[in-house]
Amino acid sequence: MKDDDKRRKELVKTTGTGKPSKGSIDWMRARGMDVQEFEAELAAIERRLAPLVEEAETINAMLAPYEAIKEELKEARATLRRLKAAFVERLTAARAELDDDDCRELVLDIDRERLLDRFERARVRRVGALVADLERLWDKYRVSLKKIAGRRADATTRLDGYLKELRYA
After folding, report:
1. How many domains does the chain have?
2. Could you tell me if 151 and 109 lie in one domain?
3. pLDDT at position 169, please?
């Protein structure tokens, strides 16, 4: 396909001003040369390339949403870079306005918030584990010993009845 496309471009090539380039069919025709052989070659190349070009256009159409997403991602990354730069600039300016004591207080406040957040997450995990343990115990001991003993007595009575019926007892 690459060689055919290259040859097709040579046969129909024009200059930047729109004039036929040297070696093209139109250039040869303007020089009075017989171009039937070249026109037949161009037609054969275009017949071979037509299904491939159509397939490439189909693939490009399928890739259009991907290309749109790539462009959106590119724009989002550029926006992110601008926002980061603005944030760093603003942070630097704010830091310049703080003295050492204010800086220390700010860092301690941030650390305190992080620590409280970690404690809260740990508390939520522990409460969740405790609830799960209690639910497991509830499922395990939901039926009282008295009910279990009653069921056992009923089963024993029925078993004794079956054994007498079978003359084992």
Report:
1. 2
2. yes
3. 65
